[in-house]
Amino acid sequence: MNKPKIGFVGVGRMGANMARRLSDQGYTIAAVYDHHQPLAEELSNELGASAAARLSEVTAASDVIFTVVTDDASMREIFTGEDSLLVGAEGRTFINCATVSPESQQVAAEAADKAGANTLAASMASSITQARDGTLYLMVGGEKAVFDSNKKLLEDISSSLKFVGAVGDAAKFKALVNMVMNINTAALAEGLGLGAALGLDLDMLREVFSQTGANSRVLETDGDDMVSREHECYFSSSHAAKDSGIANKIAEGAGVDVPLSRATEAQYRKLIDLELGELDKSAVAELTFPGRAGKK
Question: Which UniProt keywords apply (predicted)?
């Protein structure tokens, strides 16, 4: 069976590495598009793809189009208007990977259906390294038949692939994953910051955390960085604020109070106000360690 031609819209850190992975797996990356045209041109030169100047050019060149955009507004933009991805989209499949609201995923899927195209929401619980290595954790929503027909493609970029139900459900799962992750990250920053204020040995404190109920995945990924102030960006603080905000709006709609998540969003928005939003989420420790006061 011939492999589909692939297009990408949004080729920042995640999208570009996904494209590289699929190219390594023998897929033709036919076209790439990004608001920041130099990113598209650089990747197109690397992979032998077309650097599309218009969204409709990506659709025309591709069988399957991955979208990896920033937020709800970006999702609306690429699926509406005279030069959207839906121009000439009949028979195409869109795989939307952005962390956006369930409503945004649903609206995009309905618009694609009217244009004769298929849609999957493939929410990613992973980062840049996993995108490049093809070890993403994917939570996929949409029609089961569409999922099944694209399963091999999705397996080529993932190590864990879960079909979770409707398009909007994928966004709900992802929102809750990031809600809990962000809370854990903010809590770890407070615990380590308090330990520093008490003069404790932070290496020993992290070891104790790892062997007790204080253990968490973020202790493993972010603990050292919080202490050393190495906040190279894998998942930005600005994205953490956005994603906690998505979860908090979902909770509000469900009539559920989530005070920890609201406090976590507030911490990450404080980092944005301090112009530290493009640092990794571990930078929340800049607000909790003595003597830092949010200043690098």
Answer: NAD, Oxidoreductase
Q: pLDDT of 192-221, one tens digit each?
A: 999 999 999 999 999 999 999 999 999 999
Nearest one of 260, 205, 255 to 227, comparing CA atoms: 205
Judge whether 230 and 224 are in contact, CB under 8 Å.
yes
Residues comprising the chain, all counted? 296
Domains of the chain are 6-165 (3.40.50.720), 172-287 (1.10.1040.10)
Quick check: 245 and 265 in contact, CB under 8 A?
Answer: yes
Q: Which two tokens stand for residue 29?
A: 């990356």
* Sheet of strand 29-33: strand arrangement: 50-51, 29-33, 6-9, 64-67, 93-96, 118-124, 136-142, 158-165
List of residues 6+ apart from 125 with CB closer than 8 A: 136, 137, 138, 139, 174, 177, 178
Q: How confident is the model at residue 296 (pLDDT cuts 50, 70, 90)?
A: very low
CA Rg value for the chain: 20
CA atoms of 62 and 250, how far apart (whole Å):
34
**Residue 168: which H helix or E strand, with range?**
helix 167-197
Q: Give counts: helices (H), strands (E), the chain.
A: 13, 8
Long-range contacts of 143-150 (CB under 8 A, 24+ apart): 143/118, 146/93, 146/118, 146/119, 146/120, 147/120, 149/93, 150/64, 150/93, 150/95, 150/120
| Structure token digits, residue 264 | 């976590």
Give the residue among 158, 160, 156 at the shortest CA–CA distance from 24. Answer: 156
Sequence-distant (≥ 6) Cβ neighbours of residue 148 within 8 angstroms: none
